[in-house]
Amino acid sequence: MGNCFSQSKNSTSEIAPYDWIRHFKPLPVAAPPVRLYGSASSSLTAYVRFALLHKNLSLQFVSTDDKPPSNGDGAVTLEIGSESVCGQRETLLKFIEDKFPHPPLRLNEVMETTPLVVNVTWLQHRSITWHLERMVRWAEDLSRCGGRRRVDPAVGSPRMELKKFAKDYSQLLEVMLEHAQMEERVVFPVLEMADRGLCKAANEEHARDLPIMNGIKEDMKSIGVMDYGTPAYHEGLSNISTRLKSLQKHCKEHFDEEEKDLLPLLEATDLSKEQQTRVFEQCFDAMKATHSHLFNFFLEGLLPSEGMEYVDLISKCSDKDRTASMISLITK
Questions:
Q1: For the chain, how many structural domains are there in total?
Q2: Parallel, antiparallel, or unpaired for β 59-63 and 76-80?
Q3: 299 and 151 in one domain?
């Protein structure tokens, strides 16, 4: 973690939720070869490749774009060892899970019984929460290093690490702002139609945290031009660490309140199926940056099962071209 902990295998900037798979029994050394045959532009192909990323498997992808279709429209073929399956998403995912059950790629069934908008919001909370925790730990590492000039090869020189730290925070800030706008423009108005004033406190929370979020970004810019290791540099890092902890605390309380008091009420709004679908798709319309150039960054904050659930939700959108474009980003 950071430049201060040379004994750690990963720096704070590199640790991702799927590191938790180390708790499971590792795959045998001689794991069977895995081959995937399908179109490189197919959303189904990208989906299966994304699932296999979390299984610690060596995958050989074979494009079939130059061959006439033989497996049905959009179908792909997956070979694991001497066995193969050709079919659609559920068939292929079951085949993968039967062969390699850990880590699991499915959330509990409770996710299937809640409104789609609730699922989207909940998963976005999970990613933001994890990224904030990582930034807090990373800031603590940078502050603890002080003026020492030890270099961690994983992140480069201290100044290089600070630039990486600032870049990651800028990406997180963009996701957080889009998420807040999604709630204010899409989720909260639905609740306000049923009970005026219900979301007043949540909107006030957004307004309160925005100056803190932008202030941290400005502080990072200021530190970036300071001489490394000076008292002012060290004090600036300490202040950023403190402000990030405060932001983390505010966000956790805010998310907990939304998930406990607001989101469950979406089930009581009596929206028709068509209206629920429209609101659900408006959520994705409001998150254009997150679902384009920040999509992989966003998914890094989710466990494998959560990432698969989010991709499943994306697949429910009616605009299949946009769906295919979004899912294809995860294997690039």
A1: 2
A2: unpaired
A3: yes
